[in-house]
Design a protein that fits this description.
Keywords: Amino-acid biosynthesis, Methionine biosynthesis, NADP, Oxidoreductase, Threonine biosynthesis. Pfam families: ACT, Homoserine_dh, NAD_binding_3. By secondary structure, this protein is an alpha/beta fold. Helix 14 runs antiparallel to helix 15. The longest helix is centred in the C-terminal third of the chain and has 21 residues. It has 3 domains: about 170 residues, NAD(P)-binding Rossmann-like Domain (Rossmann fold); about 150 residues, Dihydrodipicolinate Reductase, domain 2 (2-Layer Sandwich), CATH 3.30.360.10; about 80 residues, ACT domain (Alpha-Beta Plaits, 2-Layer Sandwich). The strands form 2 sheets. Strands 7, 8, 9, 10, 11, 12, 13, 14, 15, 16 and 17 form an 11-stranded mixed sheet that branches. Bound molecules: NADP nicotinamide-adenine-dinucleotide phosphate. NADP nicotinamide-adenine-dinucleotide phosphate (NAP) binds next to helix 1 and helix 6.
Length: about 425
């Protein structure tokens, strides 16, 4: 059996997990890969006491890995944008294949990296970045290759999902966020997770591979979960819906929708059952219908599982000297379509609206009339006498699917009414039809 030499950059959570699983399962991985995958070099800012590197060369300089002629595959697990970009491009220039778990890098610099890799004839694989241990990129790029994919929707940030799950018990966002930080689920700076930026990185990549379009992270819409209240969660539940922080990408004739925001999903749908830190991605293909991929979206060995699957794919190419490659985004570069990301005013969605109305006769009729004037049909309406407070009563409305432009204009008029008070709360809803 041939040897394929791997160099790991970054020995943190995922780097350590990758080292441990590759070492522990070396024999069975060799049996699957048809070659021996040997870690020959590791570089990280610090060495770890809990990992026995044995004879493996260690340095604190990550560029030692890309400059080592004996290394066939560079595994980038340092994270971040700029140094990771330089590292990956240097590896590619040196003719090395790359495996990374860095979704931020791929979402932002992927077009440049893939073009360079295409030129150099090397693979840059990134499965682990999208949904940790869930092999969803493999499913989209290979398993679903026969399909026209019309939409993708996913719970692709475990921290946000944990927070929304815990809030169903009536707890406030800030309290649960603090708990998530104490448990190590959320970073000290939780912005990327709770504002939807991390999910948007992943969604950008999913959409590109699903629809065959270049990566357009800068045009993705993100809305976080900090303004979601236990009140709206409870009332959505009463309407038969659950609030999830979803990444949604939809292919339309005029462009693609690329958006991350809190979303009401039917409680009866499988994705509503995905709780805690777990992730799930729903993909709708014209031939297969809806498929869902579910599991751990993070964690040292769960993420290593996906990193190593990519290493095995690459090792087979190295060992067999094959020229056969699955295209980076699932489509050969010439087949990528320049479909633009649609503005949010042009997206189509159903909506949950919470309007604070003055408790007087005729208000409901005025609200219904404004919605009707904007072509918005009401799916259900909820108003409870028991919730009257200081002469005000919440009116909760679920609409049919309309264009966001229509809802925006209707909300402007609703807020202008003398019979309503304060801003209208608006949460998008999805029925997955
Ligand atoms: N954690 C997960 O569950 C998970 C899941 C999916 C994807 N990912 C992605 O995987 C990547 C790694 O994440 P992680 O959680 O393993 O991060 P981490 O625990 O912070 O590990 C990063 C490692 O790289 C080292 N490092 C960073 N910059 C370096 C540099 N310039 N030179 C040398 N060493 C450097 C760090 O050293 P110091 O500690 O000394 O700074 C640390 O050992 C990220 O792109 C992340 O988004 C993570």
């Amino acid at each position: 059996m041939k040897d394929v030499n791997v160099g790991i950059c970054g020995l943190g959570t995922v780097g350590g997990g990758t080292f441990n699983v590759l070492t522990r399962n070396a024999a069975l991985i060799a049996g699957r890969a048809g070659c021996n995958i040997r870690i020959t070099r590791v570089a990280s800012r610090r060495n770890r006491d809990d990992i026995d590197l044995g004879n493996i060369a260690f340095s604190t300089e990550i560029f030692d890995v890309v400059n080592d002629p004996a290394v066939d595959v560079v595994v980038e697990l340092i994270g971040g944008y700029e140094t990771a970009r330089e590292l990956v491009l240097a590896a590619v220039r040196n003719g090395k294949h790359v495996v990374t778990a860095n979704k931020a890098l791929i979402a932002v610099h992927g077009n440049e990296i893939f073009a360079a890799a295409e030129k150099a004839g090397v693979v840059v694989a990134y499965e682990a970045g999208i949904a940790g241990g869930i092999p969803v990129m493999k499913a989209i790029r290979e398993g679903l290759a026969a399909n026209r994919i019309d939409w993708i929707a996913g719970i692709i940030n475990g921290t946000g999902n944990y927070i929304l799950t815990e809030m169903r018990a009536g707890r406030e966002f800030t309290e649960v966020l603090k708990e998530a930080q104490d448990l190590g689920y959320a970073e000290a700076d939780p912005t990327f997770d709770v504002e939807g930026i991390d999910a948007a990185h992943k969604l950008t990549i999913l959409a590109s591979a699903g629809f065959g379009v270049p990566l357009q992270f800068d045009k993705a819409y993100t809305e976080g979960i900090a303004s979601i209240t236990p009140y709206d969660i409870a009332h959505a539940e009463q309407l038969g819906y659950r609030i999830k922080h979803l990444g949604i990408a939809r292919r339309r004739d005029e462009g693609i929708e690329l958006r991350v925001h809190p979303t009401l999903v039917p409680k009866s749908h499988l994705i509503a059952q995905v709780d805690g830190v777990l992730n799930a991605v729903l993909v709708d293909g014209d031939a297969v219908g809806q498929t869902m991929y579910y599991g751990p979206g993070a964690g040292d060995e769960a993420t290593a599982s996906a990193v190593i699957a990519d290493i095995i794919d690459v090792a087979r190419i190295v060992a067999s000297e094959s020229k056969l490659r699955v295209p980076y985004l699932g489509f050969v570069p010439d087949a990528l379509e320049n479909l633009d990301v649609l503005s949010m005013e042009d997206i189509q969605s159903a909506y949950y609206l919470r309007i604070t109305a003055l408790d007087r006769p005729g208000v409901l009729a005025k609200i219904a009339s404004i919605l009707s004037e904007h072509g918005i049909n009401i799916e259900s309406i909820m108003q409870k006498e028991s919730e009257v407070k200081d002469g005000r009563i919440p009116v909760i409305i679920l609409t049919h699917t309309v264009q966001e432009r229509q809802i925006n204009r209707a909300i402007e008029e609703l807020e202008f009414l003398s019979d309503t008070d304060g801003p209208v709360v608006r949460i998008r809803a999805e029925n997955f039809n």
